[in-house]
Amino acid sequence: MMDNEVLDFDIGVGVSSGGDVDDDAIDIEHHEEDDMLDSPIMPCGISVVGNSGDYFPEGADLEPYDGLEFESEEAAKAFYNSYARRIGFSTRVSSSRRSRRDGAIIQRQFVCAKEGFRNMNEKRTKDREIKRPRTITRVGCKASLSVKMQDSGKWIVSGFVKEHNHELVPPDQVHCLRSHRQISGPAKTLIDTLQAAGMGPRRIMSALIKEYGGISKVGFTEVDCRNYMRNNRQKSIEGEIQLLLDYLRQMNADNPNFFYAVQGSEDQSVGNVFWADPKARMDFTYFGDTVTFDTTYRSNRYRLPFAPFTGVNHHGQAILFGCAFIINETEASFVWLFNTWLTAMSSHPPLSITTDHDAVIRAAIIQVFPHARHRFCKWHIFKKCQEKLSHVFLKHPSFESDFHKCVNLTDSLEDFESCWFSLVDKYELRDHEWLQAMYSDRRQWVPVYLRDTFFAEMSLTQRSDSINSYFDGYINASTNLSQFFKLYEKALESRLEKEVKADYDTMNSPPVLKTPSPMEKQASELYTRKLFMRFQEELVGTLTFMASKADDDGDLVTYQVAKYGEAHKAHFIKFNVLEMRANCSCQMFEFSGIICRHILAVFRVTNLLTLPPYYILKRWTRNAKSSVIFDDYGLHAYANYLESHTVRYNTLRHKAYNFVQEAGKSLYTCDVAIVALQEAAKTVSLAMKKEVRRTIANGNFKENSVTDGKQMRCNEDCQQEVPAQTEPEDEMDKKINQLKQELELANRKCEAYRTNLLSVLKEMEDQKLQVSIKVQNIKISLKDNL
Q1: pLDDT at 371 over 80
Q2: Using one digit for the tens of pLDDT, what is the confidence trace for 515-554?
Q3: CA 20 to 30 Å from 481, out of 7, 106, 247, 282?
Q4: Phi and psi for 279 in degrees, rounded to 5?
Q5: From the CA atom positions of the chain, what is the Rg in Å?
């Protein structure tokens, strides 16, 4: 050995890998944090790679010994870390000693990362459930290197303990140890290039493995790469965020109804940013019953932490309710974002909200929207399933189909539960952690648990176009902030053009009717073209269904509806005869706002000829954005007449049916019933005549005749009749019939006037809409020319 040999090491060894804190660089008296060894996120040997970019100078294969000198403390640290890499353990700084004279560090101790034992601090764990306890890594190892500073400024080894009380890591796994995980300059350059091209961390890691010739020669893990990319993106966004703020200030200056807000101070460190243009805020007043918060662009694949709020208009198209740039992803930041969005939308919370499966977002929604139904996006979960269960998809091609059937095609909670457990047993997945977590959250993403809430989806099983991101086709993995504004405006223009086109088609292209049903004609005049086609599909579908009465409980009748020969797949409809309301077990109307074929089948057998107003949601009609109010005599004038007649008819038929059922049980009761019916017929005839007289009295018709000896007097309520003399019955009937005809003629004239007025109002509304379409087309043409 060489006495007092001075080794000058490259102090660049041990630089932080870009996301995890480098504990070795903390200058404290006693360092108590667990430093490495095995990352709880990425166990050694699983999807980890590294970069052997460390600099080993001449003499680096020496073993430490007392008296060995170094030019600096950093050089001593680098030497011990290089020695540890060769041997197979990780290092950290344990303690230091400072000069009383000037406070400078004069002594350091570097130890094996498994030195000492974890400090179970009661204050940190008291009253707090630890969901993911960290692996115990400290086992009391005594291996260490102590150095102290000499008067010359150089550092000398003052103590060295070689022995470890644990197994050392083999060379092919040493890159898993934290103190040996560094991202070299060339590796950073390659990561930057691939990230700019839109590649995610997993694909980048694969490229690095090929570049360096193996997983053990790169020097860092996928977690380090992910952290480095996240920090890169954060720095990039912070540098460009001023462009966004300048854009929003200009938009607000041009139109005061343009809303924007910044979390924190605009002059200091900027947090999350939110904005909503006037159209988005107005559209929310019409279609704000259900909202989707799309966080697709938060993923590492994209360079923009962009998240739009979207909804569905009356054509089933995606519409915008505002946008956010998410710089900070804490629960408090999401609470601020949701509260700010709610303020922009006039503090009217939605009935339902759909987001990605995220615990932080869920916690924020519980605080801001406590009464809204929160749903996790099923299609994001399906996509995650392909990642988490990729081995199952490869081994069992039938798994995807079985999983889809279990989630989408089960009709009841019991069916889903049974199907789910059969699925996990069949593919031996009962102990799969992610799948267990998804089952625990099933009430927030499996359709059978959500059908009682409105989500504006046109199908219970198929993905709606509106679920696709509003900005698909415009913002992609390579989009940066400087390009964003132009693409953002282009997306808005394209969506507006599609909405104008749908308005035009609805007003100018009458749909082809497929049945003679008055209900189909009524729906064709009320719904938008897209919604009518969806309704028509359900109406035509009733032709293959049969409805039969399953139970009769007075005013509430239960029907069983099924296709012929498929009684085991029946749906049950509870029909309130008096209120003309029906609830189906499929809950399609509650979920989508479109009446299902099962209820329509019941309406068919009960002679209900038009849709009751309850089943026509204004948000699906062509007048969804209209401010003209003529619902009472407009949308439902004819329907109300038919319904009132139908209600009376159904009520009487229901009572008569029960009467006949009882009376027909014996000959005696049948004879009694016939006599009772004859008496009832006389009573009804007399009541009809009294009804006409009451109508005459209410209409201020008075007739006094001395010659025929008749005198009629009506009290204030027109409820009593006091005849002075009796007039021949036939003369009375003639006059009653004459007055009745005059009254009916007057009613027909009133109805004609009302219809003409309605026609004028509708024509005015149609012209207003067509003018709006022409204006929008002109605006789009002008922008294209510019």
Answers
A1: yes
A2: 999 999 999 999 999 999 999 999 999 999 999 999 888 7
A3: 282
A4: -65, -40
A5: 39
- The order of strands in the sheet holding 91-98 is 6-7, 69-70, 155-161, 144-149, 105-112, 91-98
Q: Decide if 228 contacts 19 (C-beta within 8 A).
A: yes
DSSP state for residue 556 in the 8-state scheme: E
- The model's pLDDT over 293-303, given as tens digits with 9 standing for 90+, comes to 988 776 545 55
Instruction: Report strand pairing: 352-355 vs 373-376.
Output: parallel
- DSSP letters for 409-470: S--SHHHHHHHHHHHHHHTT-TT-HHHHHHHHTGGGT-GGGTTTS----S-SSSPPGGGS-T
Which of the four pLDDT bands, split at 50, 70 and 90, describes residue 722? Answer: very low
What angle do the packed helices 413-426 and 399-408 form, to 10 degrees?
160
DSSP 397: T
Contact present, 285 and 346 (Cβ < 8 Å): yes
For the residues 9-16, what does the mean pLDDT come to?
35
Q: What is the pLDDT of residue 728?
A: 57
DSSP letter string over 591-610?
Answer: HHSS--HHHHHHHHHTT--S
Question: Would you say 43 and 62 are in contact if contact means Cβ atoms under 8 Å apart?
Answer: no
Assess contact for 459 and 592: CB atoms under 8 A.
Answer: yes
460 near 390, Cβ under 8 Å? no
In the block, tokens 């954060």 appear at 234
Pairing of strands 306-312, 155-161: unpaired
Whether the link from the prior residue into 745 is cis, omega within 30° of 0, is no
Residues 6 or more apart in contact with residue 76 via CB below 8 angstroms = 9, 70, 108, 110, 145, 147, 155, 157
Q: Structure tokens of 652? A: 């009487």
- Give 217-281 as a 3 state SS string: HECCEHHHHHHHHHHHHHHHHHHHHHHHHHHHHHHHHHCCCCEEEECCCCCCCCCCEEEECHHHH
Strand ranges (DSSP E) for 504-633? Answer: 545-553, 556-563, 571-576, 581-584
Alpha-carbon span 185 to 493, nearest angstrom: 44
The two tokens of residue 595 are: 């009446």
Backbone φ, ψ for residue 571 (5° rounding): -110, 150
* Helix (H) and strand (E) counts in the chain: 21, 19
